[in-house]
Amino acid sequence: MKNRLPVLRAERGWSQADLAQRVGVSRQTINAIENSRYDPSLPLAFSLARLFERTIEAIFEPDPPSTTEKART
Amino acid sequence: MSIPWPSERASRTGLAEFLLAAAMLVLGVALMRRTLLDYTSPGAMRWVLAGLAALVVSGFATYRIVRRREYPWILGLAAVGLLFYEPTPSPYVVVDRLAMAVRDLALIGAAVLFLARTMRSADELERRIQLEALSWSYSVVLVALIAYALAEDVLPPLRGPWVASALLGSWVAAWLLASIRYQR
Hints:
Largest sheet of chain B: none
CATH class of chain A: Mainly Alpha
Strand order of the largest sheet of chain A: 1-2
Number of helices of chain B: 7
Number of strands of chain B: 0
Radius of gyration of chain A: 13 Å
Strand content of chain A: 5-15%
Order of helices and strands of chain A: EHHHHHEH
Number of helices of chain A: 6
Structural class of chain A: mainly alpha
CATH superfamily of chain A: lambda repressor-like DNA-binding domains
Largest interface: A-B, 13 and 14 residues
Order of helices and strands of chain B: HHHHHHH
Strand content of chain B: under 5%
Number of domains of chain B: 1
Oligomer: heterodimer
Distance between the termini of chain A: 20 Å
Helix content of chain A: 55-70%
Number of domains of chain A: 1
Number of strands of chain A: 2
Largest sheet of chain A: 2 strands, antiparallel
Distance between the termini of chain B: 24 Å
Structural class of chain B: mainly alpha
């Protein structure tokens, strides 16, 4: 899942550690989310959305559906 | 305090020190055992001193790892150490037995408390990594135990510390691999 966390974080001049501290997770978790290695839980996604005063959809963008998913629909 | 990631805690220096500590531990124990089996030979003292020197080097490397709190390497060393663990026979005197029981309970209690506190304070990704690591290590050891059971007749008797060592060692390996997967 793609996301705009690095951009939103840079706009505020926060480091990964700053953001991690504000939402109560480890810096590595923020790093994994930013690099699309880990999809956050719903509570964490809401926390991030609240912090950046955006909707979840404005921060996270789901991957395009795969060919099998398209065929199923 | 949350579980630190191997990328932050398990440094390359720590890996080198872990390998040194493990090698010296194996060497030291082997030399001491060799001496105990043949303590009347003229060169016995030399072997004792060599074994002690190896154990001192191992202890120093372990101290450096513990001081930096590199948990994966500490647990890895515990897995190596467990291979050589041989419980001493219970003492005859009741008071001594009680003292030993209290000491063992305190050690186990401290380990359980540390684990519980660490897991409780871990964030969602750390918990996920631990869950993946533990499920892999449990599965690997389970398969190994089943394989052992099938060939039990031709293999040496299995000892409890070996199983504990395998569980601990596979947990650390799976922990490192799982955490690397979430990093770039």
